[in-house]
């Protein structure tokens, strides 16, 4: 049987022609790409494959950047906290920052653009009470209050692109010139990017796909004075700030932003922060500018007969694929890095493009492809995680990045990817464009809603953090589950109510964050709308600290629906009698091991004897359910991703929505096995999500059951 080729992009590099031909054939690639740090030779470009060429809009043009250094990009940064032990304090505001990446902007008057704040009181210090020493990078503050803390919010030039800096360090580019990013909002830079695009297109006629990496503004990534990451926020807009932008913002929105609206007490408007009106306005303002400016370049690419592909990373800020202006850019496709199932869905669900592409891990860099390491381990884990999501909504293409010459040294890795490529094409050819069976519709409720679809709880792209793995597990579980998922905001609920087709709402996170909601729950319309919806038959699942803010004798503002609240030590004088566990419960029926609640949540207790306590230990409720009118609410203390927890969430949703019997349609009793059905093509797929043999009882669409035994990682296709 001849293998089908296509749907795969292969990285290559000059001087690696023979081996590239071999891998091109074995992996069935139909496109070749360069990577940051590599170039494609003419011989490679003449192979029978589409040519992707990386294109940097606002970096990688140092000849222009050096001649127009005043058009560098900017950042707002905050100094360390400084204690005043007398009536003056000197603040070394650059302390802790990497001088090769950023330098203070003294060209724009600090008295206009900077801000000194008493962080003990929140008071903004009068500009007459502080002076800047530009020789020593010091701000001297006078008339300070003893033992109050002070900070400086200051404007810097960004003189080294942070992604190139990361690659520089990772790949030991010791002699490579530092890329200086410039701001396309400025006059000369705006003209340059259009003229250079014309010139580049003329010189690169053999390019088929222009891979924008990405457009104009990098997500917030600042390094410390040791060249290590100091602050990273994959959603951060801090690097899109400039005096020009702030002036234009004031003209358009009718008010002026303070530095503090960007600095945000040093949190820089992390996506975990409940967004302020000012920050949302700034995001909207930048998205409009980015979409209009990017469209000019994309139009030029199309006029040259080429495709325009955007990398969802690096300088992606302002594009917002799930935002209101993304469609206007006119891109052909989006490519992004696949770290797990949630990030695959984040890419595959992007609207308004002809195709999506996932760049799989590991990246072909020396940190992974080194002597003594086995890259197959990471590749296998990455594929099995992503495959769950692919079975629900596949990307149109897969690919890899980095130095092919490194990967080629690992024959077992080359063989494994060959198998992955064949399996991906089989899945894609079978289910692309086919709607999978879904037993429920689930809504994730938070401050961000649609614009952060499949991006909830992330700090940096698919990286693990102690405080969030208990919540990222929700998205990872849902990414491969037989349910429809949408993301709604608190404002959506207040303005439009809750759609009738939603079966279950999930609210999860730590109190005070944008994901749990914090002060959002003080809005009487929001709380009463959600309560009424559950009371009339909806299912609600709260994880961690749902709807949490201490108010009027409650901590969980939906405690009445959940049947539990959290003790804050204020009601220790009130006895809590209810601690009897239910011996068996629908939610935990398939779970054979102790439930992993991750970081969990302490001091949660049942309000009445009606609360079904499913897991109780250490004097705390970690899993419970409560009937509320015609509806139900389930409480879970935390949900890191594993197979059992994914099943626990699935059972919780069917139970909360009173659809227990519907669970047993296209269902496997083994938590390591999943079933996805595609009624329109009369097929369903049974997948083994592990690298071990698995046995499972399988239920078909009519709830008939039979036993299967699956090889490690096997997909078995069945006819309906």
TrEMBL record:
Report a single Gene Ontology molecular function: 1,3-beta-galactosyl-N-acetylhexosamine phosphorylase activity
- UniProt keyword annotations, A-Z: Glycosyltransferase, Transferase
Annotated Lacto-N-biose phosphorylase central domain residues: 441-661
- All copies of domain Lacto-N-biose phosphorylase-like N-terminal TIM barrel, residue ranges: 6-437
**Transferase found in the keyword field:** yes
Metal-binding among keywords:
no
Q: Tell me, what's a Pfam family for it?
A: LBP_C
Q: Please list the residue ranges annotated as the Lacto-N-biose phosphorylase C-terminal domain.
A: 666-718
Task: Return the InterPro entries for the record.
Answer: Class_I_gatase-like, Glyco_hydro_b, Ig-like_fold, Lact_bio_phlase-like_N, Lacto-N-biose_phosphorylase, LBP_C, LBP_M
Q: What Enzyme Commission number does this protein have?
A: 2.4.1.211
Write the protein's name.
Answer: 1,3-beta-galactosyl-N-acetylhexosamine phosphorylase
């Amino acid at each position: 049987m001849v293998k089908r080729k296509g749907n795969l992009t292969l990285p290559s590099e000059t001087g690696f022609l023979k081996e590239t031909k071999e891998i091109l054939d074995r992996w069935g690639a139909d496109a070749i790409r360069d990577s940051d740090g590599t170039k494609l030779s003419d011989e490679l470009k003449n192979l029978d494959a589409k040519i992707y060429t990386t294109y940097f809009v606002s970096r990688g043009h140092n000849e222009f950047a050096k001649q127009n250094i005043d058009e560098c990009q900017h950042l707002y940064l905050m100094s360390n906290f400084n204690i005043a032990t007398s009536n003056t304090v000197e603040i070394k505001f650059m302390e802790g920052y990497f001088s090769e990446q950023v330098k203070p902007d003294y060209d724009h008057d600090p008295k206009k653009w900077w801000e000194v704040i008493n962080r003990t009181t929140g008071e903004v210090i009068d500009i007459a009470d502080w002076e800047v020493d530009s020789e020593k990078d010091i701000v001297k503050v006078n008339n300070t209050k003893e033992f109050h803390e002070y900070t400086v919010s200051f404007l810097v030039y960004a003189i080294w692109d942070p992604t190139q800096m990361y690659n520089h360090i990772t790949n030991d580019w010791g002699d490579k010139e530092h890329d200086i990013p410039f701001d396309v909002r400025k006059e000369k830079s705006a003209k340059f990017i259009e003229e250079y695009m014309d010139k580049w297109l003329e010189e690169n006629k053999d390019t088929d796909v222009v891979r924008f990496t990405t457009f104009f503004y990098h997500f917030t990534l600042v390094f410390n004075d040791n060249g290590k990451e100091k602050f990273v926020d994959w959603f951060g807009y801090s690097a899109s700030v400039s005096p020009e932008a702030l002036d234009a913002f004031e003209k358009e929105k009718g008010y002026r932003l303070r530095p503090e609206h960007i600095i945000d007490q040093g949190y820089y408007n992390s996506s975990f922060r409940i967004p302020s009106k000012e920050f949302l306005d700034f995001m909207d303002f930048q998205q409009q500018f980015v979409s209009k400016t990017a469209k000019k370049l994309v139009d030029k690419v199309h006029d040259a007969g080429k495709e325009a592909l955007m990398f969802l990373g690096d300088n992606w800020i302002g594009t917002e694929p799930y935002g209101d202006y993304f469609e206007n850019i006119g891109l052909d496709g989006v490519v992004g890095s696949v770290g797990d199932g949630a990030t695959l869905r984040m890419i595959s669900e992007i609207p308004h493009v002809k195709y999506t592409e996932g760049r799989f891990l590991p990246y072909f860099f020396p940190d992974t492809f080194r002597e003594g390491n086995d890259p197959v381990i990471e590749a296998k884990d990455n594929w099995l995680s992503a495959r769950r999501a692919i079975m629900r909504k596949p990307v149109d293409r897969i690919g890899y990045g980095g130095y092919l010459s490194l990967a080629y040294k690992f024959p077992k890795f080359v063989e494994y990817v060959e198998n992955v490529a064949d399996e991906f094409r089989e899945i894609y050819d079978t289910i692309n464009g086919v709607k999978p069976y879904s037993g429920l519709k689930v809504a994730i409720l938070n401050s961000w809603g649609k614009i952060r679809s499949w991006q909830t709880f992330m700090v940096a792209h698919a990286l693990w953090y102690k405080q969030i793995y208990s919540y990222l597990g929700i998205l990872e579980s849902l990414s491969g589950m037989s349910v429809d998922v949408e993301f709604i905001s608190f404002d959506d609920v207040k303005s439009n109510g809750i759609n009738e087709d939603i079966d279950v709402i999930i609210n999860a996170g730590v109190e005070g964050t944008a994901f749990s909601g914090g002060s959002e729950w003080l809005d009487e319309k929001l709380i009463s709308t959600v309560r009424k919806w559950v009371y009339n038959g909806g299912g609600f699942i709260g994880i961690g600290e749902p709807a949490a803010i201490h108010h009027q004798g409650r901590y969980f503002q939906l405690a009445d629906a959940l049947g539990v609240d959290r003790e804050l030590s204020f009601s220790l004088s009130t006895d809590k009698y209810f601690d009897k566990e239910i011996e068996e419960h629908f939610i935990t029926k398939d779970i054979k091991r102790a439930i992993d609640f991750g970081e969990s949540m302490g001091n949660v207790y049942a309000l009445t004897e009606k609360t079904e306590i499913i897991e109780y230990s250490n004097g705390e409720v970690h899993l419970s359910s409560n009937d509320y009118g015609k509806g139900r609410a389930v409480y879970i203390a935390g949900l890191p991703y594993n197979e059992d927890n994914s099943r626990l969430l699935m059972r919780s949703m069917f139970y909360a929505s009173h659809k227990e019997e519907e669970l047993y349609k296209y269902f496997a009793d083994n938590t390591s096995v999943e079933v996805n059905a595609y009624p329109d093509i009369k097929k369903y797929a049974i997948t083994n999500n592990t690298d071990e043999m698995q046995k499972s009882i399988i239920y078909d669409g009519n709830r008939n059951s039979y036993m299967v035994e699956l090889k490690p990682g096997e997909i078995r296709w069945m006819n309906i």
